[in-house]
What does this fold into?
Amino acid sequence: MDRYAVIGQPIAHSKSPSIHAHFARQTGQVLEYTALAVPADRLAEELQRLHALGLRGLNVTLPHKQAVAAQCESISERARQAGAVNTLQRTESGWSGDNTDGVGFAADLKRLGIALRARRVLVLGAGGAARGILEPILAASPALVAVSNRNPWKPEALAESFKPLGEVLPRTHVALKGDRFDVIVNATSAGHSGQMPLMPSGLLAPGGDCYDLSYGPAHAPFAAWAVRQNAARIEDGLGMLVGQAASAFEIWRGVEPAWEAVIVALRRELQVGTDTDLVAAVHAPVHRSHVELPPQD
Ligand code: ATR
It folds into this structure.
């Protein structure tokens, strides 16, 4: 049987095995997909070992998305531009690396009907997650794209490396005071420690949308902030997670799964899970109509 895995650490809560099991069932593909804990200092040898064991493909998650590129025989142009690899495909003598995060993000925005064209887009964060989504953002002909970050040097470097694809305005969060955006995308990992970067208020234009690459409990701080900004739409990153997995599945198996149905199934699965973190994590993306407004700040 063809075998696949997701590697990372921590990995116990990864949804990827469940998502790929859905895809396999739905498309009638016979395969096995497991989650493997791989510490940072064992990445190179584990990749060799999994290749020797005959695995057909791997997904790569934290903390390896950047380090894994150096272990690949070749990487795609979009993975090189993103500076991160999330999908490995077996070659005869090693692994070829790709990045499907941008495809997943673009597909999810399309599914949700959130347009970027001619809108002012702000990306919060300038790490690997932000790099992974900038190509589709720039390709969507927005009015402008700004990237803001706590560390002031990172957006400068990021803007420089994306120059061939379009203009990215480097900012710090505080320097945004007085600016207005139609779409704000949270690509920071702050939510994983229960935080939201400190931002000036009034950043979101009336009718503006907020999209978070995080989901589950990590989505809560940004969702609460977005509610206070009167966002028209507030969406979490579960759809992007399933979308990037669907793109990896297609690379490996040559079949595109109907991934929108899997988002619904995944939310339902998480709701009936026994893990308290996951149960707490499961809320449909916060639409203003189902949110109790916290006090204004
Ligand atoms: P990822 O692959 O998830 O992008 P990363 O490359 O480590 O991970 O980047 C994490 C991003 O979240 C960075 O932009 C980081 O800001 P700094 O570069 O200033 O560290 C941002 N981030 C993480 N925690 C944050 C917090 N508490 N407040 C603001 N930004 C935070």
Remarks:
- Residues 65, 125-130, 149-151, 154, 188-190, 195, 197 surround 2'-monophosphoadenosine-5'-diphosphate (CB under 6 Å).
